[in-house]
Design goal:
By secondary structure, the protein is an alpha+beta fold. The protein has helices at about 1-5, 25-35, 50-65, 75-80, 115-130, 140-145, 170-180, 185, 195-205, 230-245, 270-280, 335-355, 360-370, 375-385, 420-425, 480-495, 500-510, 525-540, 555-570; strands spanning about 10-15, 20-25, 45, 90-95, 100-105, 150, 155-165, 210, 215-220, 255-260, 260-270, 290, 295-300, 305, 310-315, 410-415, 430-435, 460-465, 475-480, 520-525. Strand 1 (about 10-15) and strand 2 form a beta hairpin. Helix 3 (about 50-65) runs antiparallel to helix 4 and helix 13 (about 360-370) packs antiparallel against helix 14. The chain is globular, with a radius of gyration of 28 Å. It starts with a helix and ends in a 24-residue tail after the last helix.
Amino acid sequence: MKYLKQHPGLLVVRADKGNVTVLMDKTQYKELVDTLLQDEQYYKKLPRDPTTSMQNKCNAVIKSLVNKGYITQTQGKRLYNYNSVPARFYGLPKIHKPTLTIRPIISCINTPSSKLSVFISDILSKYLSASRSIYFIEDSFSFADLINDFQLPDNYVIISLDVISLFNNISLDLAVSAIESKWQLINNHTNIPKEEFLSIINFLFTSNYFVFDGIFYLQILGSPMGSNSSSPIADIVMDFILDNVLSDVPFHIPFIKKYVDDIICAVPEEQVSYLLEKFNNHHRRVQFTIEKETDRSVPFLDTKVIRLPNNRLILDWYRKPTSSGRYIHYLSNHTHGQKVNLVLGLKNRIRRIAHPSLRTQNLEILFQLMLENGYPRGLLNRLIHSSTHSGQPRNEHRGASTTIDLNLTYASLPLIKGMTNALISLLKTPNIKLIPKPEFKIDRLHSRIKDSESTFHKSGVIYSVPCSMCNEIYIGQTSQQLKKRLAQHRSDIKNPNKICALADHSRDRDHLMDYEATRVLDCERNGGKRSFLEMYQIKRHPNAMNYRRDVNHISSIYSYLIHFDQVNEGDPSRPRSVSSDGVLSDGSRSGIG
């Protein structure tokens, strides 16, 4: 971390696939993204930030649904958004491709249409769950149940098909056609009429804007990866394409299965080119690549389908060439139970996927992989090669009931070696279950590649506003966007009936607050935690102008710990933020549980 601070031109990012960490030059990353965003087929630059207008349009759509009785007032309240922020673009390097490119991801958290997108996603997901297509494959396990020992007809081969950038190439007309074709079944999961529903789909497709490097763009083609509605729409589009392509295929296909945009099937050897051409002729935007058998095998998900000389199919456990082989390291700060369950989970995966004739060699591969991740040989011998372990992950809390106890409250404690387990035993009660939680995450080493959110656009924050004429500061918290809360403070000063420490300070002393120097001390969406953090920050800042009643609800134990921390720190006025698990912004411990 120290090295990276000294070399700001370097980026540490996750690769698109393979659990690989990529170190790259910031200039190269920006060039790759700029090349992508300059493609006028997909993106258009916007002259200004459209967040406010998009928010108003989205709220108008929701209000119309409420007024027409398609959703309830309560549902409408949950869908309205008044604290929207722009979507933010970032890219993950595709190191598994021959030429380095970037996979575009758009972070749609708290955007104007994010709640509406979730609402539509829920409807489409319910339809997909209730009406599984014949092409659907849930996971590698169900695929293994189908394929292991499957007998192919003579002269048949295995091929896999993959869509080139599916999400980015789903046009609005294709999405509408696909949804219309399935409407009789989708209609069972919503009160919204078809025309209204399709108009919402149209709005979602035409409101995909984002910011990158301070510039705003509109995505004019496709459904962004990162939007909640994109995945179920992609599923429906793929089913629609498969239905249309296969409706008049002049030969028998023993099986054809898909997982999102990956398709695997068996076809007559002489019909491979015909089928690829038929798929690519269906829609000019949705184009497929093909992978044919290599050494009588084709990979699919984390399996490899092997065709034996007698045309019988068996499965092998498969890892991509770019896979890092990196799992939770044995010396990492995780509970021993998590590490044991990781090994048993992988063992169980191999046993369920790989054909019996291939299990032993795959378990040996797993053994070597976990050795490279620091696991002791003795432990691996007991977990992988011992017959006493079936491969099923174990429950760390033995004797725990499988019935969900609604009266049980879950809470987490930072995982500190030699301390946390003792605390859990000490604080154990029938109604509270404490879970040890590793406090350091790999993500903390990754570079920030999304545009930073403006201080004044942040919501769910604890903030400080300094006085411009003395050294006192006001500390507050708000669920709103900070700029709205500051506007309320300005209004409160003018209203003598408003009682607030900031307003009283300004009126009584005729001082002006320096709103431009407002700082965010911490972010917390949970209202209860945010109130506690506000009191914590008031207690930590001896120059806070807040009233004594503002901290009346903080425990005397916490008050003592905060005071003790200030004395030991030596500089009590230096502000440091604290997260809900007690970790301060500089990485030290606050003393707060």
